[in-house]
Amino acid sequence: MNESNMTISEHFKLTRMTISTSWILLKKLPTLNQLNSQYN
Prior knowledge:
Blueprint: H1 2-28, H2 30-39
């Protein structure tokens, strides 16, 4: 039980870090954002 809880916690940390990094990249690189919206 404890191990799975720690794993879930680590998973959420990684997810939040990934989302934060994505937002920073989108804000700093508007050209990438435009390309992304073109393909989607």
